């Protein structure tokens, strides 16, 4: 299978950033010249677009992750920081609302809130990319007392 055929085949399954496509083709030991040519062709056809990828990714992940986590994941995938910034602004992600939804879901499944459970929730939300300020605000809105959990900025 040629480099171009392989690239177009994998792009028919899911979207790739330019960096991801380059890495995938290099792992298959295709010659660098052919890789660059195939990626250039795919970009020319619009099959690879880091801008479009960032927009779609930000929207698709915004119901379960905070903007910080989404930004980090896009950077790892090789998307330019400026494209990420634009994508996050255009997607109008509301970290507070998403965090609130996740906390409410957690509270439905855990009626008895212990300090240990609250700390576990804070760690989970932090890992998902929500700032401690947002977490604290959501906890205050839901009436979780400050002495039940220590949130340091």
Give a nutshell description of this structure.
The chain is an all-alpha fold.
Protein described:
- With 153 residues, the chain is an all-alpha fold.
- It has three domains: 1-48, Arc Repressor Mutant, subunit A, CATH 1.10.10; 49-93, Orthogonal Bundle (Arc Repressor Mutant, subunit A); 95-148, Arc Repressor Mutant, subunit A.
- It has helices at residues 3-11, 18-27, 32-45, 50-61, 67-76, 81-91, 95-109, 115-127, 132-142.
- Helix 5 runs antiparallel to helix 6.
- The chain is elongated and about 60 Å long.
Radius of gyration: 20 Å
Number of helices: 9
Assign the CATH architecture of the largest domain: Orthogonal Bundle
Q: Give the C-level CATH assignment of the largest domain.
A: Mainly Alpha
Mean pLDDT: 91
Overall SS class: mainly alpha
Distance between the termini: 53 Å
The largest sheet is: none
- Unreliable runs, pLDDT <50, ≥5 residues? none
Q: What's the number of structural domains?
A: 3
Q: Classify the beta-strand content into a percent band.
A: under 5%
Percent of residues in helices: 55-70%
- Per DSSP E runs of 2 or more residues, the count of β-strands stands at 0
CATH topology group of the largest domain: Arc Repressor Mutant, subunit A
- Globally, the shape reads elongated
Topology order in helix (H) and strand (E) letters: HHHHHHHHH
């Amino acid at each position: 299978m040629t480099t171009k055929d392989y690239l177009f085949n994998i792009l028919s399954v899911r979207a790739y950033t330019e960096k991801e496509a380059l890495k995938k083709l290099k792992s298959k030991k295709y010659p660098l010249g052919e890789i660059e040519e195939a990626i250039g062709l795919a970009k020319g056809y619009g099959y690879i677009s880091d801008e479009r990828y960032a927009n779609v990714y930000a929207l698709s992940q915004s119901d379960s992750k905070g903007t910080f986590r989404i930004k980090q994941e896009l950077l790892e995938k090789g998307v330019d920081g400026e494209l990420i910034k634009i994508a996050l602004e255009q997607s109008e992600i509301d970290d507070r609302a998403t965090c609130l939804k996740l906390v409410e879901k957690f509270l439905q499944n855990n009626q008895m809130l212990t300090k240990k459970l609250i700390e576990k929730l804070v760690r989970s939300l932090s890992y998902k990319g929500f700032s401690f300020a947002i977490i604290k605000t959501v906890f205050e809105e839901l009436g979780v007392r400050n002495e039940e959990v220590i949130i340091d900025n």
